[in-house]
Amino acid sequence: MVRIKQRYLLFNILYPGSAAEAKKSLPTSLSFQAPTPDYLDAGRLVGHIRNHITLLFGDFGLGLSLSSLKIVYFSSATSTVILRVPRNHHRIVWAALTHVTELPSPRRGEPGKPCVIRVVRVSGTIRKAEEELIRRTRRDIVMAKLTDDGKGETWLAGLASRGADGEQLAANVNVNMKSIEDLSGDESDESD
Q1: Under a CB-based contact definition with an 8 Å cutoff, are residues 69 and 83 in contact?
Q2: What residues does each domain of the chain span?
Q3: Could you identify which of 16, 93, 129, 189 might form a hypothetical disulfide with 85, taking C-beta atoms 3.0 to 4.6 angstroms apart as the criterion?
Q4: SS3 (DSSP) at 41
């Protein structure tokens, strides 16, 4: 029996329009990151990706990539997605993600929210994609904590209160703050 092989694309949805608004409240390293609008869910996002695949590669490209196209993880609070795609045709999906310039609007005929999709990692297993997601999230928390003299804490508090997994994220942020302070103390000791 032949096993169907997949690839997992970990990507972030960035909002360039929010960078100008949020310069005062966010660290500069996180100024393009914002929560995804509430109306956008995994099904609507996958439909939007399918439309872009059809737009760029036609029905043939959609047929090649449709066999296992599925969102495995979607966090509206952090605008992070893990997408499962067929191994042989993951570059088609990656190219379509690169050409997405706006999210779908809640109503037909209205312009969508401008965005940029940045593919962070292509992985052969979901485990490696999740590990990369955790590693990047920890790095962002440390950067938010260490830069801009406390602005990161207000950003983290706002992020923790948002989204379906806000309570879990708030608990994780509170638990991890102690380890982040230890980590930042270790980094400052090494630089001396």
Answers
A1: yes
A2: 6-185
A3: 93
A4: coil
- In 23-114, DSSP assigns E strands to 70-75, 80-86
Does the structure show a pLDDT above 80 at 185?
no
Phi and psi torsions of 181, nearest 5°: -65, -40
The residues, ordered by sequence, that sit 6+ positions from 100 with a Cβ below 8 Å of its Cβ are 48, 49, 52, 115, 116, 117
pLDDT digits (tens, 9 = 90+) for 74-112: 988 888 999 999 999 999 999 999 999 998 888 887 888
- The kind and range of the H/E element at 120 are strand 116-123
Evaluate whether 187 touches 62 at the Cβ level (below 8 Å): no
Distances (CA, A) of 131 to 2, 54, 79, 96: 27, 31, 17, 25
Residue 25: closest CA among 172, 181, 157 = 157
Class (C level, CATH) for 6-185: alpha beta
Name residues whose C-beta falls within 8 Å of residue 167's C-beta, 6 or more positions apart in sequence.
none
Q: Are 33 and 54 in contact (CB under 8 A)?
A: no
Confidence at residue 166, expressed as pLDDT on a 0 to 100 scale? 45
